[in-house]
Amino acid sequence: MSSTDVPTDGPVWAIVLAAGSGRRYGPHPKQYEFLGSERVVDRSLAIARAAADHVVVVLGPGEEAEGARLVESGAADVAVEGGEERSDSVRAALGVIDEDAAVIVVHDAARPLATAELHQAVVAVVHGGADAAIPAVPVTDTIKRVTHDEHGDLVASATLDRSELVAVQTPQAFRADALRAAHAHGGSATDDAALVEQAGGRVVIVAGEATNIKITGPMDLAVAIVLLGTLG
Ligand code: CTP
Ligand code: MG
């Protein structure tokens, strides 16, 4: 993959993904839950806005009125409808990003506590020459590979070397051409860096933030509210 011939000093675009259905969270869409006085999606958009020239918000089907409000308020420059899988939602956003975009940051709305400094840090590493920059934190649990045995029981088949593992977060920043190339032939992954890795791109890790949790299950919103109180 080309990595140094296209300048990265042009416009920075952020994609904020809020088109998921939050099946693990519960009955309410997690992106519209309140964190203090603002919703999860509003906080994620405001922080992405602080580090990008343009912001695309990706929303679920039937959320056109919500998208119009977010654009009207200036929280986003454009709203698009997402797709079935997270990667489909990213591709929907790529379809509305200007050709002259130099760096594209992909962020999960479900991580409302990522700081503007983290957004700026990943962009800076791409400006420095990486195809992609992603935040990660050390893994503290012991991680095992599991399988089912002949009795149907869940059993451990291997214990992975924790020193070689990290837990990856968003925001993830990409050279725009690297991200577009990685998505050019479809594909699905739980993050975009996986597609860039598969395409042979150089993905640089930056220090993530322990407080940058993803709201996944019902407990996570409560944790995020407590963390917000300590972060200020
Ligand atoms: N997302 C998206 N489009 C999809 C799936 C996910 O924009 N088709 C977004 C979610 O809104 C979320 C982020 O990607 O901000 C990370 O996904 P995840 O935490 O898995 O959220 P959901 O897919 O909504 O939740 P679940 O997997 O529990 O259904
Ligand atoms: Mg999901």
UniProtKB/TrEMBL annotation:
<keyword id="KW-0548">Nucleotidyltransferase</keyword>
<keyword id="KW-0414">Isoprene biosynthesis</keyword>
<dbReference type="InterPro" id="IPR029044">
    <property type="entry name" value="Nucleotide-diphossugar_trans"/>
</dbReference>
<keyword id="KW-0808">Transferase</keyword>
<comment type="pathway">
    <text>Isoprenoid biosynthesis; isopentenyl diphosphate biosynthesis via DXP pathway; isopentenyl diphosphate from 1-deoxy-D-xylulose 5-phosphate: step 2/6.</text>
</comment>
<comment type="similarity">
    <text>Belongs to the IspD/TarI cytidylyltransferase family. IspD subfamily.</text>
</comment>
<dbReference type="InterPro" id="IPR001228">
    <property type="entry name" value="IspD"/>
</dbReference>
<dbReference type="Pfam" id="PF01128">
    <property type="entry name" value="IspD"/>
</dbReference>
<dbReference type="InterPro" id="IPR050088">
    <property type="entry name" value="IspD/TarI_cytidylyltransf_bact"/>
</dbReference>
<dbReference type="InterPro" id="IPR034683">
    <property type="entry name" value="IspD/TarI"/>
</dbReference>
<dbReference type="InterPro" id="IPR018294">
    <property type="entry name" value="ISPD_synthase_CS"/>
</dbReference>
<dbReference type="GO" id="GO:0050518">
    <property type="term" value="F:2-C-methyl-D-erythritol 4-phosphate cytidylyltransferase activity"/>
</dbReference>
<dbReference type="GO" id="GO:0019288">
    <property type="term" value="P:isopentenyl diphosphate biosynthetic process, methylerythritol 4-phosphate pathway"/>
</dbReference>
<protein>
    <recommendedName>
        <fullName>2-C-methyl-D-erythritol 4-phosphate cytidylyltransferase</fullName>
        <ecNumber>2.7.7.60</ecNumber>
    </recommendedName>
</protein>
